[in-house]
Every structure is written in C-alpha cells, then in structure tokens.
Amino acid sequence: MAALGGDGLRLLSVSRPERQPESAALGGPGPSLCCWVSVFSCLSLACSYVGSLYVWKSELPRDHPAVIKRRFTSVLVVSSLSPLCVLLWRELTGIQPGTSLLTLMGFRLEGIFPAALLPLLLTMILFLGPLMQLSMDCPCDLADGLKVVLAPRSWARCLTDMRWLRNQVIAPLTEELVFRACMLPMLAPCTGLGPAVFTCPLFFGVAHFHHIFEQLRFRQSSVGSIFLSAAFQFSYTAVFGAYTAFLFIRTGHLIGPVLCHSFCNYMGFPAVCAALEHPQRWPLLAGYALGVGLFLLLLQPLTDPKLYGSLPLCVLLERTGDSEAPLCS
C-alpha cells in the first residue's frame, strides 16, 4: 500500500484554465491523503465484512444451518451500514460526486432493464460450454427441466434451503454491495476507473482467505491442499471481481453484477477436466471455445454505456477533472 502514497498516482483535479487538485479546490486534504483515506476505507469495509462472519462463536462447520442463519444477521447488518462508510469518505475527502449516494452506488431506475438482462446474458454466453455440459449430463429433457425450474414447489424448497439462500441471494447481494458499490466510488477518483477495476478485486479476493482457517480448523484436507485451494480461489475471485467491477462501471447499476454473481455461484468453476474426459468432448470443447469467443466479441457492445444512460462514476470523474475515462465510452 506504500505505493499508493507515491508520486505515481494521478492527482484529482477540476477542469479550469489552470488545473488544480480537486481536494485543494474544495479546501479538503491533499490528493495523497485522499488516496490513503480511500484505501483505508476499503480495507475497513473488507475487514468488517469478514469479521462479521466470526462474531458468533460456534463449533459447527460453516454449512450448518444454524451457523448460516447467524451469519446472515451479522453480514446484513454490516452491509446495511456500509453506505455510511462512503458518506464518511465523502466528508473526509471533500469530493462531491454530483449525484445522490444511492445513485452513485448503482441504485437507480434509468436503464435498469438492460442492466439486469444484458450482463447476465453475456455471462451465460461465457458459460456456454458448462451449460452444454450440464444439459448433456442432466437425465431429464429440456421440457421436464423447465417444468422443474418453474414449479412453485421447487422455489419454495430453495427458499427454505439455507445454503441456497446464502450462495444465490445473500452472498451475491452483500458482496457486490460492499466490494463493488461502496469501494469503487471511493477508489475511482484516486486511481482512475481502469486501475480501480483491478484494485478493487484484491480486497474481494483477500476477503475469501478466511476459508483457510475454517478448513484448517475442521481438518477438511491436508495443509498443502488447503493453501493451494486458497491460492486458486484468490485468483478466481480476483478475476471475477474485476469482471463485475467492469460491469458496475459500464452499466452504472448494481443489479447486473448481483445477478451475474448469483449465476456464477450456481455454475461454479467450469469443469474443464471433466469436459476433456466426457464421451462428447469435441462438441463440448467447441462449446467452450465458442462461448469464450462470443463473450470477447460481445463484451464491449453489450456493455456500451449508451444502453444504460448517464453513468454515476463517470459523472464523478468528470467533476474531478477526468473527462476522458475510456471505460465511460
């Protein structure tokens, strides 16, 4: 983090004949101090989120319903209070976003329908191969599968399943709220949008290291396997966090990242090794390749800011003097 206080950071500025640092123009602290405030605020949010999972002392594993219910309570409290951290950051730095706090965090109606549908469609295209694999391995046909998915009894069973609620509802909502909607507005004026896309997921990835302690505590595997799994999970969650940060910036909405997060939690990491050994591996591998190719081809068009209206983070950067942010166009 020492690098964050160095001369390499872009200084916040206001568009004037003589460009001045934003914080100086507003009478606030210097740019380096603003960056330190931003980083400390993000670190505090990450620690608070993870710490809320351990306020309840229990000898039960994390997947036990009683543990999940208790963690629901604490993590929802922390997530509900997280916007106060952004509010405090705004007061300490003197930066004025030009929009309401909720709008800045992605809670807005303008462009909400494309923001809900297009990022999810884009993510499903990326998972074309795994979706084909799931379809091939499913014992029921498409019509029967749709009946199961749409049946009220199936949804009622899901809503009473604590693990399903955690993985598909609570975790996506609270993690995207804390690690994207709250952190990105604080990091973007300090680093710019591009670096923020890759800086923000580091907090998200490190926050998942707490699984190491639970696995070591319950001896779920060898020490080497646990740390190898943690390193892989950090890499995967960091890449995924960069993707959802990109979606949040380009759409200006929280709903897209939340739905994509829920979908990815359901799908899990693509079972590439199983696909290589599958009886129909060539069609599957073609599906994997086609999905990745279409994803890269459609990434920019389906996240075109013109589809979603005015982008709050881009408005924020315009007010701090950065009117040429590439992710805003």
UniProtKB/TrEMBL annotation:
GO terms for biological process: CAAX-box protein processing. It is found in: Endoplasmic reticulum membrane. It is a multi-pass membrane protein. InterPro entries: Rce1 (IPR039731), Rce1/LyrA-like_dom (IPR003675). One of its GO terms (molecular function) is metalloendopeptidase activity. The chain crosses the membrane at residues 109-128, 226-249, 255-276, 283-302. It catalyses: Hydrolyzes the peptide bond -P2-(S-farnesyl or geranylgeranyl)C-P1'-P2'-P3'-COOH where P1' and P2' are amino acids with aliphatic sidechains and P3' is any C-terminal residue. Keywords: Endoplasmic reticulum, Hydrolase, Membrane, Protease, Transmembrane, Transmembrane helix. Its EC number is 3.4.26.1. Residues 164-267 form the CAAX prenyl protease 2/Lysostaphin resistance protein A-like domain. The keyword Ligase does not apply. GO terms for cellular component: endoplasmic reticulum membrane. Belongs to the peptidase U48 family. This is CAAX prenyl protease 2.
